[in-house]
Every structure is written in structure tokens, then in C-alpha cells.
Write a structure and sequence with these properties.
The longest helix is centred in the last third of the chain and has 19 residues. α1 runs antiparallel to α11 and α6 runs parallel beside α7. β3, α1 and β4 form a beta-alpha-beta unit. The chain is globular and about 60 Å long. The strands form two sheets. Strands 3-4-5-6-7-8-9-10 form an eight-stranded parallel barrel, surrounded by five helices. A two-stranded antiparallel sheet has the order 1-2. With 330 residues, it is of the alpha/beta class. The protein contains 14 helices and ten strands. The protein binds flavin mononucleotide. Flavin mononucleotide binds next to β4. Pfam families: Dus.
């Protein structure tokens, strides 16, 4: 069993990565239904939370059926981080995660996200500010370092653990790499094998199949795996990996009916959460992923992303179901 504070997770848990514009409640509900053991919100700006920005507020929505669930915040100012931790605590997540890994310019320019990797003292102060203002377990997600000449994840891990961080998720890339090249898990393994480190270490980066999950589990010895992009439009990845780790056998691929059901549920749950109009518009970006690689699907994809009415959309799903009832996935 893996423990984060008092949260008990199964042996070798599979985590859904925080992903902006993706890891919202309807998507998380699908991932939970398909085996995710711990999930995170999209990252939320600490300054946005304090300003009471609507976009930041909405990202705080969590539901009991998705527990354990963490809310992720980012920022470069100690006071703002402490205040936002209090706001987050009020919605009662199971933990607060801090993002020190986001590479995008608009975040880094403000001295937040991966920028904090350039100043470990600041990272420690920001993290301590959060820990001191909440009773919830605090975890961190970060990268290996700013660039290949400044990989500092070993020191980061020790110093964060020393001030009370309860788990660390490491994306095996530097900020400079963005999403290019391959994630290098050897650095993650070194942190995990450091005898000083007792908090759980979760590996992240490029896991996209049961085989790779097994290979990386054995090779790098991490406490669990965090999965991001491979779950987009494919929440089945979690149970596929679990089944393979347990039995050495692959589950059958999700059928067309499974994919239609997932996309339909995604739409329904998005409408339940945000109302019909917004739910319909916000689910559009996901359809391509659920129906990836299907021959001659263009017409249906087009209709899914242009139909405005809920009943009409459900009819499009029914039609897809009829037309593709025998479709075989390779
Ligand atoms: C669309 C998208 C949005 C992301 N947003 C966040 C975020 O809000 N917070 C965060 O810590 N990482 C974010 N990430 C990084 C992922 O959590 C993860 O570290 C990265 O995608 C590598 O894992 P993967 O190879 O399994 O996708 C995002 C990644 C993507 C693709």
C-alpha cells in the first residue's frame, strides 16, 4: 500500500495527471470509472483564486465520487500561495498539490511553475507557506530541473521532504525540453533510490501502454505512475495497465460501443456540470480523441462538433452506433 499522509492508495497506484482544459470533473469521472486511483484538478492560479476569478473558482469543483482527489495550485508569491491554500482547503479536497513544473511562458514569466526550479530556496519558501496554512497533505509535481545543465531534482526532493511534503510526482523532462524528446526516468529512479527519501515518488512522462508501464515499473522502481496525455480520449488505459501488471495479459481493446458510451457520458456529465450550452461546446474538443483512427469518420466528427442541440447530438451517437456496430479496432 502507498500512503500520502493518511490517504491510503493501492499498491502501485495509477495517477491521472493534472492537465489544463482536460482534467475537469467530467473527464475525471471517466478516468475514475476506468481505474484511476488518484486524480488532480487542472492547475489553478493562486492569484486568480484570490481575485475570485470565475475560471479559477470553477476549477475548484470536486465531487465525492472522485475521491481521493487533489487540487493543484501554482504561483510565485508566498502570501498568495498561503491564502489560496486556505481557499482550496475550504472545498475539502483530499490533498493540495503544488505545480513547479509548468513550462509555458505565461506562467514561467510570472516566476511560477517551472521557473521556481531555478531557485530552490524560493521553492522551499512557497511550499512551506502552503504547508503552514493547511492541515491537508501537500504534494508537489515538478520536472527534473530547468535545463540539462541544471538538473536539481535530487536536492529538490530532499528539501521538500524535509519541510513536510508528503509525495512527489516527477515528470522526467527539464523545462527546456518542454514536451520534446523522451522523458528520462533514470533521474526519477535515482531520487527513488536515495536512502534519505521516504515519501512516495511517482514517475511521469510518456507512459502510453501497459507494456511500457510494466517495463518502467520494473526498471525504475517508482511507487506509482502518473499518466497524462495517454488518457485523453482513452480512459481505458488505467484498467488496461492494472490488468496487465496483475496477469501479464492484455485486455481486449475498447469497442466502438465502449467509445460511444464514453463520449456520450462525457457529454452528459459536462452538461450536468456546466449546463447544456457550455457542456456541449466544451465536450467538442474531446470527440476526435475518442474516435481516433476510425476510417471514414470525418462526416460524423464534423456533425459532433457542429450540432448545437442535446437531443440531436444523442441522435448522432445513435447513428454512429448503428453504422459502426461491427467496426473492428486493429
Ligand atoms: C494539455 C495539457 C495540460 C497540462 N496541464 C498541466 C497542469 O495543469 N498541471 C501540471 O502539473 N501539468 C500539466 N501538464 C503536464 C502533465 O501533467 C504531464 O506532466 C505531462 O503531460 C507528461 O505526462 P504524459 O507523458 O503522461 O502526458 C499538462 C499537459 C498537457 C498535455
Amino acid at each position: 500500500m502507498v500512503k500520502i499522509g493518511n490517504i491510503e492508495l493501492p499498491e502501485f497506484p495509477l495517477l491521472l495527471a493534472p492537465m489544463e482544459d482536460v482534467s475537469d470533473p467530467p473527464f475525471r469521472r471517466l478516468c475514475k470509472a476506468h481505474g484511476a486511483d488518484l486524480m488532480f484538478s487542472e492547475f489553478i492560479s493562486s492569484e486568480g483564486l484570490i481575485r475570485d476569478a470565475i475560471k479559477s473558482r470553477q476549477k475548484l469543483d470536486i465531487f465525492d465520487y472522485e475521491r481521493p482527489v487533489g487540487i493543484q495550485i501554482f504561483g510565485g508569491d508566498e502570501e498568495a500561495m498561503a491564502m489560496s491554500a486556505k481557499i482550496v482547503e475550504a472545498v475539502n479536497p483530499d490533498l493540495i498539490d503544488i505545480n513547479f513544473g509548468c513550462p509555458v511562458k505565461k506562467v514561467v514569466c510570472k516566476g511560477a511553475g517551472a521557473a521556481v526550479l531555478k531557485d530552490i530556496d524560493l521553492m522551499v519558501r512557497l511550499t512551506k507557506a502552503v504547508i503552514d496554512s493547511t492541515n491537508l497533505p501537500v504534494t508537489v509535481k515538478t520536472r527534473l530541473g530547468w535545463d540539462e545543465n541544471s538538473i536539481n531534482i535530487d536536492e529538490v526532493a530532499e528539501r521538500l521532504q524535509d519541510i513536510g511534503v508528503k509525495a512527489l510526482s516527477i515528470h522526467g523532462r527539464t523545462r527546456a525540453q518542454l514536451y520534446k524528446g523522451e522523458a528520462d526516468w533514470s533521474h526519477i529512479a535515482r531520487v527513488k533510490n536515495n536512502p534519505r527519501i521516504t515519501m512516495p515518488i511517482f514517475g511521469n512522462g510518456d507512459i502510453d501502454s501497459p507494456e511500457k508501464a510494466l517495463e518502467y515499473k520494473n526498471k525504475y522502481g517508482v511507487d506509482g505512475i502518473m499518466i497524462g496525455r495517454a488518457a485523453i480520449g482513452y480512459p481505458w488505459i488505467f484498467n488496461e495497465i492494472k490488468h496487465f501488471l496483475k496477469t501479464g495479459e492484455k485486455l481486449p481493446l475498447p469497442t466502438m460501443q465502449d467509445r460511444i458510451e464514453a463520449a456520450r457520458n462525457h457529454l452528459t456529465w459536462a452538461m450536468d456540470w456546466k449546463g447544456d450550452k457550455l457542456g456541449i461546446v466544451e465536450t467538442r474538443r474531446h470527440y476526435t480523441n475518442y474516435f481516433k483512427g476510425i476510417a471514414n469518420f470525418k462526416e460524423y466528427r464534423q456533425r459532433l462538433v457542429t450540432t448545437d442541440g442535446k437531443e440531436e447530438l444523442y441522435k448522432v451517437f445513435d447513428e454512429i452506433s448503428d453504422v459502426y456496430s461491427d467496426y473492428e479496432f486493429a
